[in-house]
Amino acid sequence: MPTRSWPRPTSLPAVPRTQRFLLTSLLSVVAWAQHAGPDIMGHTQLPLYPTPVAPDTVRARSLPEAFPRGCWHGRVRSYTMGSVNEGSYPDYYASGLGAGARFKTASFYGLQVRIGGFFWANLASNDLVTPDSLASAVSRNKVGLFDVTNPTRRRLTGRAEELFLCYRWRHSILTLSRQLLTTPLLNPQDGRLSPNYAEGLWLEINEVPRTTVSAGWLTGLAVRSTIEWTSVAGSVGFYPTGVTESGQRAQYAGNLRSCGLGFAGVSRQLSPRTMAQA
Predict the structure, then answer these.
(1) Residues linked to residue 179 through DSSP beta bridges, in sequence order
(2) Which domain of life is it from (predicted)?
(3) Residue 13 lies in a domain
(4) Can you name the residues that pair with 249 across neighbouring β-strands?
(5) 181: which residues sit within 8 A by CB, 6+ positions away?
């Protein structure tokens, strides 16, 4: 299958550093069943799972038949990065390996169920917990390869990713529960072992040629480089969030309240190279 190149991750240390060496490797191996269908939601830069050329033609005549006629997808991903810094600043390296699987039932009167998960492990890394004495910080990019909530974790870990029911009518799709979303505001940020996932209700209407109307309400998120699902409010603060007007570090984590996150938008393909979104 064709491959696409990944952008190299960049490092944002606490103080200026000169990066002399950066090595990044990403291996994505996918396997799919004979009757594979198109992905429900938008795609990342490198699709997590394969996108078949032809639409899914497998149809179940009864609900019990939908599961035996379903299909499996699998993926294996390896990611290695390292940095060599000038002077007395410490050097960092990290290497991780992950594997996941996803099952999709056959279509039963437009209804489909999809479930999937992903596991990963820290194969090798130096100390990602103790801040160095000069910068008073650790390498954020290396920590983010595994679990930012527990950098000491080295054993096999993972999380449930997709678990949803969708209904397809003509060219439109309604999806309920945990899913992968790609929108101008919320996207997978798929630059590590596992991307962001969202939980909620999502609708895509594609009945007008070259036009897509999207709307949704999200109640939970699985943040990249974490192993737990959390609320929308609880998802803010895992990563550096800037400073306040007085110059103090913003303390969003654990201090926000929200009922959810709403989306509404429309996109129009004006030409092969031009798209308008609102």
Answers:
(1) 198
(2) Bacteria
(3) no
(4) 243
(5) 41, 42, 187, 188, 197, 198, 202, 216
Determine the Cα–Cα distance for residues 8 and 6; give it in Å rounded to an integer: 6
* Residue 80 lies in domain: 20-277
d(CA 135, CA 45): 33
Residue 238, φ and ψ in degrees, nearest 5? -65, -30
Nearest of 256, 267, 188 to residue 222 by alpha carbon: 188
Token pair in block for residue 218:
């999200």
Whether 185 is covered by a domain: the verdict is yes
pLDDT tens, 190-211? 888 989 999 999 999 999 999 9
**Which token pair is 165?**
């029911």
Chain segment 66-95, per-residue pLDDT in tens: 999 999 999 999 999 999 988 888 899 999
Number of domains in the chain: 1
